[in-house]
Design a protein that fits this description.
The protein has 405 residues and is α+β, with helices and mostly antiparallel strands. The protein is built from 15 helices and eleven strands. It is elongated.
Length: 405
């Protein structure tokens, strides 16, 4: 470490409050950005897992307007002949219910159609006689108000298999019975309550209606031919869309909300930039005599400029690292607030795991360092041209003053 950097380090250590103010400001700015990214990405990922768990292997969905689809369309599609590789169909009715203070998505399915759609795979939460035996399937079909939820959700609600519970559907209490828990279903089902589609129609007041029809088409040219054929058989009010397209459109509803959050986090970083600017400007003002002496000892303007920017870069690196760590901690608390807002305004999502995007961490840290450098650039440019101080120049100045007198 040369004399220039030693002088800079000594000055910072002699003014710990000034140093702490700059670091705290930058760390809070970077931490806010990281926390917002973690919260929004965790919520988006949880919703993706939920849709994947509910949709299963469906490649497309038939959807209608606000009133849904007439269930007779499903019967008609099932009765048609599509050749040797027919599409698979499964009816779905979805709505929202409350268990105590917790809101969950109620999904009514036909267990036989759901198992057929899953093929060799497993339909999460749907009783399969091959693996679960006939008792669970019998309870699903015969027990009034039979429901299935994930083991995680049941544990959080304090429910055991066979336990009766009360659902609030549109503010109306409905009795239900937890007949099974979907163990090993993954976090995608933690916010989902499964029941028979006839039971869901009764609870939601949607007799004879469906929310959508899940469709599974074969890959390649046969699937494209079936897709074109299906489109010709649907009414203009119905739409046949790929499952991934439906996911993108649903997530797009939250774009404005997440954009506002990111704008607020950038505002926090801007506040940190002003704190760094003030701290560096004050430090430069305090060291103008020292800078003049360094110039007299042979330091160039570029070296003085580099000294100030190097100090800012060091502050930026330390503040960015602290900010990333702080953001991960803040993100855990912010996840709950963000997911609750999404539940209230858009759709139900249950966040169980934090998603930490590495690209966002690097971008936030890099943004913190660049912000520190940008905030210090103006003070550095102001101090770099400081004239060198020397005894000879002082004597010359004194002689000039005496001659004028």
């Amino acid at each position: 470490m040369n004399a220039l950097h030693q002088a800079g380090v000594r000055h910072l250590l002699r003014h710990p409050a000034q140093l702490a103010l700059a670091l705290v400001g930058l760390a809070l700015g970077v931490g806010t950005i990281v926390a917002v990214e973690v919260a929004t990405e965790s919520s988006r990922r949880a919703f993706e897992l939920s849709l994947e768990a509910v949709n299963g292997p469906a490649t497309h969905q038939i959807t209608g307007g606000p009133r849904g689809i007439d269930e007779r369309l499903y019967v008609r599609l099932r009765a048609q002949s599509f050749g040797s590789s027919p599409p698979l169909f499964a009816p779905v009715l979805a709505g929202y219910v409350a268990i105590g203070e917790r809101t969950m998505q109620l999904v009514g399915v036909d267990p036989f159609a759901a198992l057929e759609l899953a093929g060799e795979g497993r339909a999460p939460g749907v009783p399969d006689p091959a693996t679960d035996g006939l008792d669970t399937l019998r309870d699903w079909l015969t027990e009034p108000g039979a429901v299935v939820m994930s083991a995680t959700a049941a544990s959080e609600l304090g429910l055991a298999t066979g336990r009766r519970l009360e659902l609030l559907v549109g503010g109306v209490p409905r009795p239900a019975t937890l007949i099974a828990q979907a163990a090993g279903a993954g976090p995608g089902l933690d916010g989902v309550l499964l029941t028979d589609i006839a039971q869901a129609q009764e609870w939601l007041g949607a007799t004879g209606r469906l929310s959508r029809i899940d469709v599974r088409l074969p890959a390649g040219a046969p699937g494209e031919e079936l897709l074109a054929r299906l489109r010709t058989q649907l009414l203009p009010s119905l739409e046949l869309r790929a499952t991934r397209a439906q996911l993108r459109e649903t997530l797009a509803m939250t774009d404005a909300f997440t954009t506002n959050l990111k704008a607020m986090s950038l505002l926090a970083l801007l506040v940190g930039a002003f704190l760094i600017y003030g701290a560096v400007s004050f430090a430069v003002l305090q060291r103008r005599p020292i800078m003049a002496v360094l110039r007299a000892l042979g330091a160039t303007r570029g070296q003085v400029l580099g000294l100030v920017l190097a100090e800012a870069a060091a502050l930026g690196i330390v503040g960015a690292v602290c900010g990333v760590l702080l953001g991960l901690v803040m993100g855990r608390g912010l996840v709950g607030l963000v997911s609750q807002t999404i539940n209230d305004l858009y759709f139900v999502v249950a966040v169980r795991e934090m998603s930490v995007p590495a690209v966002s961490l690097v971008a936030a840290a890099g943004g913190g360092v660049l912000t520190a450098l940008a905030a210090a650039l103006l003070p550095a440019l102001e101090v770099a041209p400081v004239a060198a101080f020397s005894p000879a120049s002082r004597r010359s100045s004194c002689c000039s003053s005496a001659s004028r007198r």
